[in-house]
Design goal:
Blueprint: H1 5-22, H2 39-55, H3 62-76, H4 85-88, H5 91-119, E1 124-126, E2 132-137, E3 149-158, E4 163-166, H6 167-170, E5 174-177, H7 183-189, E6 197-202, E7 223-233
Antiparallel strand pairs: 1-2, 2-6, 3-4, 3-5, 3-7, 6-7
Helix pairs in contact: 1-2, 1-3
Length: about 230
């Protein structure tokens, strides 16, 4: 599937799920919505969640969601389109990119403020790349090289504290080649010693850039990791 087709398809499928939900009777006040759904309805709702998360980077307002719903409804019921799809269909990707860039700019501003504050904390250092490194627990073992494979536990959050990943929650550390991850990790983990724990504040330029990793990591986001270096694999 082409990149330009994907957002348009996501819009259509999301609104299909939303339309199905609208046609269902309202749940009783004492019951959760899911409790009144059939298995098929729950599956349709799940489709809406997945596709809605794909659209989240567009930052649609409620009024804009209604406009998109109108377009879907007209197409689904065979009504005459109010705009030429050949003209405006390709513009969906353009709008998505414009919204992503605008949002990334806001995220970068927030991230710069957060990183500046973090760099001022006791024991923190800011490197030329923009990484803010702060040792939390001193290790006593060796430090890895970029070409090494390491075993770590970690927790990743956004600057507002929202967690997007955690090996601790999964109950299992991870192993990876240090030169095969985001630049922030490649640089930061090399500063650690086995048995140590550190905090890495990673600006988007050395993390996931303007694209981010939707839906959990928005474009331009500064990421915060607490990393525990358990082992350098030989």
């Amino acid at each position: 599937m082409s990149k330009s087709a994907a957002p348009a398809l996501a819009v259509a499928l999301l609104l299909l799920a939303a339309g199905c939900a609208k046609n269902q009777p309202a749940p009783a006040a004492s019951a959760s919505p899911a409790a009144t759904m059939t298995e098929e309805q729950k599956t349709l709702y799940a489709a809406g969640l997945i596709l809605g998360r794909n659209l989240e980077p567009m930052s649609l307002t409620p009024a804009e969601v209604e406009i998109v719903a109108k377009g879907f409804g007209d197409a689904a019921t065979g009504k005459t389109p109010q705009v030429e799809l050949q003209t405006y269909g390709p513009k969906v990707q353009e709008l998505l990119q414009a919204r992503q860039l605008a949002r990334a700019g806001g995220e970068k501003t927030k991230g710069q403020e957060f990183a500046s504050k973090a760099a001022g904390e006791s024991g923190a250092e800011k490197t030329a790349s923009g990484l803010v490194y702060q040792a939390l627990t001193a290790g006593s073992g060796a430090s890895p090289k970029a070409t090494d494979t390491v075993k770590v536990h970690y927790r990743g959050t956004l600057t507002d504290g929202k967690e997007f990943d955690s090996s601790y929650k999964r109950g299992e550390p991870v192993e990876f080649p240090l030169n095969g991850v985001i630049a922030c990790w490649t640089e930061g983990v090399q500063k650690m010693k086995v048995g140590g724990k550190a905090r890495l504040v990673c600006p988007s330029s050395i993390a996931y850039g303007d694209q981010g990793r939707p839906p959990m990591i928005p474009g331009g986001a500064t990421l915060v990791f607490e990393v525990e270096l358990l082992e350098i694999k030989k």
